[in-house]
Amino acid sequence: MTRAADYAVRAIVHLASLRGGSRISLGELATGVDVSPAFLSKVLQRLVKAGLIRSWRGRLGGFELSRDLASVSLLDVLHAFDSVPTLNACLAPGGCARSASCGAHVVWLEAQQRLREVLAGASMDRIGRLTRSRRRPTATRGRRAGHDLDEQQ
Q: What is the model's pTM?
């Protein structure tokens, strides 16, 4: 996965973790995801172009999500950067000379498909809620700490 794709995921997760579709400035978002504003600006431009976020100019400007989070998956974010991780070089375009006769190639294909399925099933809505729940101080989570968010609903 590219560095830009990693930062895009961080930015979308941060936006998804904000309450009520909040708009956030470039500086606040850069601080929140620990990325330089200059590099993040380029990443955000691609997210805008992909239709995943909106940007607003001016004093009250900033960035906000543009789609319902339940309809956006982690795979969608990675597709915006052509950056779905490839598990093995034999799965990359051009493959390898042994793919047709290698029994492991079939296993790599299945693992790659399952990775895509997991990423496609990871909605940004769920990831945002999970992020919010993990940001709370441990003391306020009490005995529920460490449990999956879906169990808390």
A: 0.77
